[in-house]
Amino acid sequence: MIDYSSYIMEETKNILAIDSPTGYTKNAAQYVYNLYRSFGYEPKLTKKGGVLVCLNGSLEEEEPNRNGILVEAHLDTLGAMVAEINGTGTLRVTPLGGLNPNNAEAENCRVITRAGKVYEGTFQMKNASVHVNKDYSTTTRSYDVMEVLLDEMVFSKEETENLGIMTGDIVCFDPRTVITESGYIKSRFLDDKLSVGILLGYAKYFKENNVEANRKIYHHITVFEEVGHGGSASVPSDVEEILSVDMGCVGDGLTCKEHQVSICAKDSGGPYHYDVVSDLIRCAKEAKLDFAVDVYPFYGSDAEAGLRAGYDVKHGLIGSGVYASHGYERSHKKGVENTFGLLKAYLG
């Protein structure tokens, strides 16, 4: 039998290696599009740049009586954009999504110019030498006191401009992906590329096992989720439910751990549909999965974006437990397996 969890971990690693901060997702989207094609599906790239595919029907023939479900995961990640070239040749940046400067300090990064050139650098506090800056330890990290130090011999604004770098260029941060022998996966941007990997694994499983489902199943790999409108479009007319597969929160006051699948009952946008949450819990129990039900204090999802856009649908949210969200994140292969198992139980 195919080990789908190992496939998911491997493809997640591959996707993590493709830079895709919000607004610069085309290369990663094309990679995912090609994988769906390789399974035998007929995906399409949406105008926003996401990937939409139907697993058991046609995108061209929507069926209002088929009770369709749209399963979503987002491909865009945190990152930054050049806001200004400083007089010293370093770069002032503005975040793309909720990238916290405390979590990104001293991280290697890449600057991608409009001409397609790539320059390496490091995101540092200004005057970052402890032996020189007496205020190093007491300075509050913010984008006002941070900069990208380019790995180029540039010491003025003009010299950096001569490289072809300009305001609006994209800054991508090194994911530093590691999969340990004990089953942990550590990386930036598991939110939400781990879930994209899980959906790819499910699509592969669905095709190879000729799974029959009593409703039409769509996958939507969204972009722009990190800025709030990833799932606000491209919802087929025969969809009656949106299930967002995103990271499950792990932290104080919550019960979920990295080896579990998390079912979200409520987040900062309000409660998820009562019947959907109840059915997810029932399926998790019947399949004997290791799961947790939690309330996320600071969170929003693609499913909520669909409702805010005006779609009349039920909505739910699940995901593998992920610790240190929006930082150097960590999950576990068992969390992947439990999330994959819940998708099989809920959709099959």
Brief overview:
The chain is built from eight helices and 19 strands.
Q: How would you describe the overall organization of this protein?
A:
With 348 residues, the protein is an alpha+beta fold. 26% of the residues lie in helices and 28% in strands. The chain has eight helices and 19 strands. It has helices spanning 4-16, 26-39, 101-104, 157-161, 190-208, 274-286, 302-308, 333-347; strands spanning 44-45, 51-54, 68-74, 79-85, 91-96, 107-112, 118-125, 146-150, 170-173, 178-179, 184-187, 217-222, 239-245, 248-249, 261-267, 270-271, 291-295, 314-322, 329-332. Strands 1, 2, 3, 12, 13, 14, 15, 16, 17 and 18 form a ten-stranded mixed sheet that branches. A six-stranded antiparallel sheet has the order 5-4-9-6-7-8. A hairpin with a 5-residue loop joins strand 6 (107-112) and strand 7. Helix 6 (274-286) packs across helix 8 (333-347). It starts with a helix and ends with a helix. The model has no long low-confidence stretch (mean pLDDT 96).
**Secondary-structure content class:** alpha+beta
Q: Sheet bearing the most strands, described?
A: 10 strands, mixed
Q: How much β-strand is present in the residues?
A: 25-35%
Radius of gyration: 21 Å
**Tally of individual helices:** 8
Distance between the termini: 18 Å
Tell me the series of helices and strands, N- to C-terminal.
Answer: HHEEEEEHEEEHEEEHEEEEEHEHEEH
The outline comes out as globular
Which residues sit in consecutive blocks of at least 5 with pLDDT less than 50?
Answer: none
What do the pLDDT scores average to?
96
Write down how many β-strands occur, each being a DSSP E stretch of 2 or more residues: 19
Helix content range of the residues, please?
Answer: 25-40%
